[in-house]
Amino acid sequence: MELTLNNGITLPALGLGVFQSPPEETTAAVQTALEVGYRHIDTAAAYGNEREVGEGIRRSGLDRSDVFIETKVWVSDYGYDETLHAWDKAAGKLGVEQLDLFILHQPAPDRFEKTITAYKALETLLKDGRVRAIGVSNFLPHHLERLLAETDVVPAVNQIELHPYFTQRDVQAADAANGILTQAWSPIGGITFYPGWGENRRNVMRDPAIAAVAQAHGKTPAQVMLRWHLQQGRSAIPKSTNPARIAENFDVFDFELAPEQMAAIDALDTGTRSGPDPDVARPERFAMVIPEA
Question: pLDDT averaged over the chain?
C-alpha cells in the first residue's frame, strides 16, 4: 500500500522504525524487514544507527530504488550550511547518493529562526535532487503556521506521536488542511520508554477495546492498531528488532476494520502524550553532536 505525497512522490504506507534499536541489532532488523516485504525504513541522525540501516539495505540485495529511505536532521545541525552538511553526514553513513525523505526532527521552539533556515536548506536539497521529498517531525499547528509563512515548499510529511491513546486531532487537521501527510511514530501505543516522560501512562497494547477487535479478526492488538492507521490514510512506522514481530507488523493487509470498530478505537484518545512535548525546549539534548560520516 502506497501513499502519494504532495509533490507526487509515493511512499510505502508502512515502514520499519529503528528508534532505540541498538546499532548491533539494526542491520539484521532492516534486512529481515526487507525480506518480509517492507520497502520503507525510517531512521534519524540522532538514533546513531544510520550506518547500520545502510548496511541492512545492502545486505538485502534489493536495488536502491526499491527502498524508500527516510532520515532526520538533528537540532544541533540546524542552520542553512549546517543542514546542508547534515545531508552529507546522513548520505555518507547510509551509503547513498539520494535520500527519499529528509525531515527536521524537532521544531526546537527556543531557536526557531535556525529551524527556518534549516528548512530552507532542505528546500535547496530538494531543488538540487539530493532528496526526493522534505518534511518535519513533531511540529504542532502553530509551528507549521510559522514555517509555512516563511518558506516556499509545503512539507510532504509531519511525523508525530500518534496512537489510540494520543491522536493529536488538531495536528492531523492542520496537516490535512495543508496537504501534509501525517506519519505516526509509536503507532502501536507509545510503549517506547522515554526517561522523564509519561511514567504514569497505560499500555494501549493491553486495552480491552482493542483486544476485542483483535479477537474478532483473529489478529493481534498491534496489527489492529496498524490497520487503524492505514484505514485513516496515515503512514505508520512500527519499531521492532524481533523477527517475528517485524513480520507480524507487516501482516495487516488481509483484513479490514468495520466503521464501528474504527470508532471504538478513536474513542480511546486520552489527550496525554508519552513522548516529549515539542513546545518544551531541551537545550542539553538539542546540543548532542552528530558525528561525521
Answer: 95
